[in-house]
Amino acid sequence: MDDESEKMPRLRRFSHKFLYALFSSFWTFKVTGLENVPRTGPLIIAFNHVSWWDGPVAVFGVGFARYLRFPGKVELFNIPVLGWFLKEVGMFPL
Question: What is the pTM of this model?
Answer without folding.
Answer: 0.64
